[in-house]
Amino acid sequence: MTQKIKKTKNQAITLKKKAVDKNITYARAYVTATFNNTLITITDTNGSTVVWGSAGASGFKGARKSTPYAATTAVEEVARKAKEKGISSIEVYVKGPGPGRDGAIRAFKAAGLNITMIVDVTPIPHNGPRASKRRRV
């Protein structure tokens, strides 16, 4: 990593690290599909973020963010950036109940990335919090 020395107005020295592109061929893709948005993060095997994107970052606003089409568009954009970094095969971890779940997986396949594994990591409560008291009318 190279470091740049940058002087500010009060002459305090700050070190700025420059990101180094590593040649990664195998990565993990985390898809979080909520009811309002779809978030996509591609990490290396250590868990460091390489590329990320979302339906909102792809230009969708409001109710259109939560559509399968918005998720597909976001994944295509993220997959293109990932291919530029050298990623060719991914493991997909899907989380959440949103409508962008299936569209995201199909878009990864259509983008030319080799999917080795698909895992659903949606958290499921075993018992959950205590129920509220019974309503009296």
From TrEMBL:
GO biological process annotation, one example: translation
One GO MF term attached to the UniProt entry: structural constituent of ribosome
Keywords: Ribonucleoprotein, Ribosomal protein, RNA-binding, rRNA-binding
Gene Ontology CC, one term: ribonucleoprotein complex
Top-level taxon of origin: Bacteria
Known role: Located on the platform of the 30S subunit, it bridges several disparate RNA helices of the 16S rRNA. Forms part of the Shine-Dalgarno cleft in the 70S ribosome.
The protein's assembly and partners: Part of the 30S ribosomal subunit. Interacts with proteins S7 and S18. Binds to IF-3.
Family per record: Belongs to the universal ribosomal protein uS11 family.
Name used for this protein in its record: Small ribosomal subunit protein uS11
Gene name, Swiss-Prot/TrEMBL: rpsK
